[in-house]
Amino acid sequence: MHNFGETLVYDYIGTKEDIFYLLHEYIDRLAIDALRRSVKNIDDPLERLRRMVRTEFNLMYEWADAILLIYQEGHILNKALLKKLLQREATHMRLYEAALEEAIQRKQLRECNVRAVSHLIKSMVDTWVLKRWDLRDKLTQLEMERSILDLVFYGLIDKRTSESRFLKDVEYLEGKVILIINSGTVLGNSLSSFLLAKNARLAMHVTGGKKI
User: Fold this and answer.
1) Domain-located, residue 116
2) pLDDT value of position 159
3) Digit-coded pLDDT (tens) for 147-193
4) Residue 33 domain-assigned?
5) Same domain as 68, residue 34
6) In a shared domain, residues 27 and 130
7) What three-state secondary structure class fits 107?
8) More confident position, 104 or 3
9) Residues paired with residue 205 on neighbouring β-strands, in sequence order
10) Domain containing residue 66: CATH number
11) 108 vs 95: CA distance, rounded Å
12) Angle formed by the axes of helices 45-62 and 64-73, nearest 10°
């Protein structure tokens, strides 16, 4: 391998901004190619998600310093270069979105905003680099992978809690003042009973224009 001095590097490439762009583009291209290879011929979308997370972690381990630099110095790019990188990033994220969409279609996952969840998964993986000062001595890469996949697929709520009134009856009506029109009807009475059970405060309009 040849060693190039800083002056010679700038002669070939140009500016610090150009170097940073090429580094970012190279790593992103590596990631996209690696992700596509990792899921080739894999039919199960959940297995594809698992393999993509592991592939991202392997890339993070190999290129940790460069990826950290990309996060720290991304602000130096001009709008044109930044737009190109964001387009590549969108291609990157689309791989996650496609797997999530198929898993939802197959009833393996519940309906969700796949764009939001894709970025959340990628952000959690990136944490392995961004928070390595705290994570590396506390847990292994495999433990981090499992934590992310468990969070995505199963959440953190214990099943016993999810079956309880805590999740079934969210108390968003508690303390709210609600006006019920024609509260003397059958429907009005039923609605009033429901709202009172939710600890709402009622102002009821009955026949004759009275309020109680």
Assistant:
1) yes
2) 60
3) 888 888 888 776 655 544 444 444 555 666 766 666 566 566 666 66
4) yes
5) yes
6) yes
7) coil
8) 104
9) 181, 211
10) 1.10.357.10
11) 17
12) 90
pLDDT at 189: 66
**Worst-scoring range by mean pLDDT, 80-84, 96-100, 127-131, 203-207?**
203-207
Averaged over 85-109, what is the pLDDT? 89
Query: For residue 205, what is the enclosing H or E element?
Result: strand 201-205
- Regarding whether 96 and 58 lie in a shared domain, the answer is yes
Q: Which of 140, 156, 172 is the last residue of a domain?
A: 156
Q: What is the pLDDT of residue 3?
A: 47
The H or E element that residue 21 is part of is: helix 16-38
Domain count, the chain: 2
Q: Which two tokens stand for residue 22?
A: 């090429």
Q: In a 3-state reduction of DSSP, which class is residue 64? A: helix
Q: Is residue 1 part of a domain?
A: no
Retrieve residue 140's tokens: 């292994």
